[in-house]
Amino acid sequence: MTLMGIVQNFNGLLIAKIFLGVAEAGLFPGVSYYITMWYAREECQFRQALISSALGVAGAFSGFLAFAIVKMDGIEGLEGWRWIFILEGILTVVTAFVCFFLIYDSPETATFLSKEERAWLMHRLKYQGSKESGYMVAESDEF
After folding, report:
1. What is the Cα–Cα distance from 19 to 77, expressed in whole angstroms?
2. pLDDT tens readout for residues 59-78
3. Closest CA to 82 of 12, 2, 139, 25
């Protein structure tokens, strides 16, 4: 998104938008998959509803943010619409960099959990489908 603020013509903007779309295409499926690695089935819906709600709220307030940023028109010789892309893009890049180091791959690799907590969480996720039957039937370890 940051690069959309430095394009010089409409073709460059379209190309940057295509690359942004390709990069963002896997975001929601990836977040949904990540949630399923940490929460049982009956807990996932609430977390995904929170994410969907947050997207709506972010969309509602993005107009206010854009209105304020566009007032930067002329600073450093850039139009206001360019500043919107640059500032929002920089925030995204910084957030992605920080999350790369803070978000764990799975409960098995989470160092903030104790050994007992990791074992409990993995057991809970592995046997989450057994509640209805009353028997401890493990889900497959393979996909």
Report:
1. 26
2. 888 889 889 888 888 888 88
3. 2
